[in-house]
Amino acid sequence: QVQFVESGGGLVQPGGSLRLSCAASGFTLDDYAIGWFRQAPGKEREGVSCIDSSHGSTYYIDSVKGRFTISRNNAKNTVYLQMNNLKPEDTAAYYCAATSHCTFFGSTYYPLTYKYNYWGQGTQVTVSS
Predict the structure, then answer these.
(1) What sign has the CA pseudo-torsion 40, 114, 60, 17?
(2) pLDDT tens digit string along 75-102?
C-alpha cells in the first residue's frame, strides 16, 4: 500500500521546537518532490514547505521562513520538517504529500495542492502556553 505516515507532533509552548517526520511506504521518495501542508480547524489546507527530488532545493511560505527547515533522507525514505520558534498560529494538523516538482514564485513556495498525491493521516501540532 502506498502511503505516508507523519509523526512527531505534540503540544509545545510558544518559542519551542518540534521535528516532524514523514515516512513513505510502498514506494521510494527518490523521484518525488515532497510538500508539507497544514490545516487548522475551520481553515483551508495550506502548503508550508516543499523539497525537490533532484537538487534538494527547498521552498517555504513567508510566514515560516527562517523558522522551519525541510530536509530529506532518501536512504530512510523519510522527509523531515524542523520547526523552531513556534507560534500559536502554527497550530494545525500537519500532512505530507508527493508531487513531481515543487512550484514556487520567486523564492517563495507556491503550492498547487491538486498536484499532490499519497496524503498521510497527519500529525497534530499544538502551540500553546
Answers:
(1) positive
(2) 999 999 999 999 999 999 999 999 999 9
Distance CA(128)–CA(66), nearest Å, equals 20
Question: 92 near 40, Cβ under 8 Å?
Answer: yes
Question: What per-residue confidence (pLDDT) applies to 54?
Answer: 73
Task: Taking the CA atoms of 20, 25, 29 and 30 in sequence, report the sign of the dihedral they define.
Answer: positive
As a whole number of Å, the CA-based R_g of the chain is 13
Can you read off the three cell numbers belonging to residue 29?
A: 521518495
pLDDT score for 22: 96
Q: Which pairing describes strands 108-109 and 33-39: parallel, antiparallel, or unpaired?
A: unpaired
92-99 sheet: strands from edge to edge: 10-12, 123-127, 92-99, 33-39, 46-51, 58-60, 108-109, 104-105
C-alpha cell recorded at residue 100: 513531481
Which of 41, 51, 47 shows the shortest CA–CA distance to 72?
51
Nine-digit cell string for 15: 518559542
